[in-house]
Amino acid sequence: MAHFSISVLLITLSIHLIASVGAVYNIVDFGAKSDYQTDAASALLSAWNAACHSNNPATIYVPNGKYLVGHVTFSGPCASSMINMQIHGTFVATSNYATLGRVGEWIVFDKVAGLSVYGGTFDGSGSGLWACKASGRNCPNGATSLTFRNSNDVSISGLSSMNSELYHIVIDNCDRVMVQGVKINAPGNSPNTDGIHVQGSTGVTITGASIRTGDDCVSIGPGTTNLWIEFVSCGPGHGISIGSLGKGYNERGVQNVTVKTTMFTGTQNGLRIKTWGRPTDAFVRGVIFEHSVMENVQNPIIIDQNYCPDNKGCPAQNSGVTISQVTYTDIHGSSASKVAVKFDCSPTNPCSGIKLQDIKLTYSGAQPAEASCTHVVGSASGFVIPHSCL
């Protein structure tokens, strides 16, 4: 995995260097206005089309200012093998949540190879939708702020995403994606505002991210392989979660995931694996969690194989997701609950190959926390507090 991360970084640097010498398309030249009133979507699309049809590396330049942007999809494949979108300004979504909510997505990149998105702020204007949901009214689900779909060799660096209606960044069915130095910010009570969601993708690296949001800081969906997460701070939020998995029967598994050097502050969970309590052929295997610091986290280490919102569609059913070869190393800090390590696995598909090494979690000051294990087989070594139930 280390060799993989280095190779992705080299691809990222190459994209920046090569794209910088190509043609530059300034969105202002295509009619964009930073007056916070004129929709800049058509100007962005015009600049994109010019860059996409170029036979050379190309840069789309967004100068300082606030640009109102409606729903826009940047589609490939492109003639240009390297497109750099360099953003110095702020994109702001309409505050009329019904508009984007019907579409479900705000800004989309689809079928693009050799893409670099650098800098800028994406303001999803989600507060109106959150208020609607809190009131119990009939509201749209909302829109994901940034979606990267069916793309490869993508670099996402130095950008900020704030107040998304739904997920901030989604990476769907992509290969070789580097997410570096992003900042994500939404209130802790903003519903379903996952920071970064990865699914159906391979070779994704997330590093140097600061995530404060109302749901999972990073969520890992079906079909994710060879994922590397490092130097990520999380909180508020629901932690870093594999899942939920197993909602559908014919669902792809998750494998070869490394999460290291992470910090969780006041989050609902730390390191979580979550599966639906219903039959499926999905799986989780080959996961490494290491070098994590917990600060007042409700569930620092948790496997929950009985996920069933509102007890609909799965009551009294056992999870068919097979979880194996999961290692936790050097996890320390404080738990907000007495049970800091909880493995609640499936009775028909017990967790296996679960390893704990050098764990030190305290509760209410210096008191040792507790561990709870159900239907799990594994081992513990080194210094382990709470005392292992494996």
Task: Please give a structural write-up.
- Strand 1 (23-26), helix 2 and strand 2 (58-62) form a beta-alpha-beta unit.
- The protein has a 19-stranded mixed sheet that branches.
- It has 390 residues and is mainly beta.
- It contains four helices and 30 strands.
- Mean pLDDT is 93; it is low at 1-19.
- It is elongated, with a radius of gyration of 21 Å.
Quick summary of this structure?
By secondary structure, the chain is mainly beta.
The secondary structure category is mainly beta
Form type: elongated
Strand runs, count: 30
Give the low-confidence spans: 1-19
Q: What integer is the average pLDDT?
A: 93
Please indicate the percent range of residues in DSSP E strands (runs of 2 or more). over 45%
**Radius of gyration over C-alpha positions, nearest whole angstrom:** 21 Å
Question: Largest beta sheet, briefly?
Answer: 19 strands, mixed
Discrete helix count: 4
Query: What share of the residues lie within helices?
Result: 10-25%
* Straight-line N-to-C gap: 28 Å
Task: Identify the notable features of this structure and list them briefly.
elongated, single chain, mainly beta, 390 residues, 19-stranded mixed beta sheet, eleven-stranded parallel beta sheet, disordered N terminus
Please write out the topology:
Elements: H1 2-19, E1 23-26, H2 41-52, E2 58-62, E3 66-68, E4 72-75, E5 83-87, E6 90-92, H3 97-103, E7 105-110, E8 113-118, E9 121-123, H4 127-135, E10 144-149, E11 152-157, E12 160-162, E13 169-172, E14 175-180, E15 183-185, E16 196-199, E17 202-212, E18 218-220, E19 225-234, E20 240-245, E21 254-265, E22 269-276, E23 283-297, E24 299-307, E25 322-335, E26 339-344, E27 351-363, E28 367-368, E29 370-374, E30 376-385
Parallel strand pairs: 1-2, 2-5, 3-6, 4-7, 5-8, 6-9, 7-10, 8-11, 9-12, 10-13, 11-14, 12-15, 13-16, 14-17, 15-17, 16-18, 17-19, 18-20, 19-21, 20-22, 21-23, 22-24, 23-25, 24-26, 25-27, 26-29, 27-30
Antiparallel strand pairs: 27-28
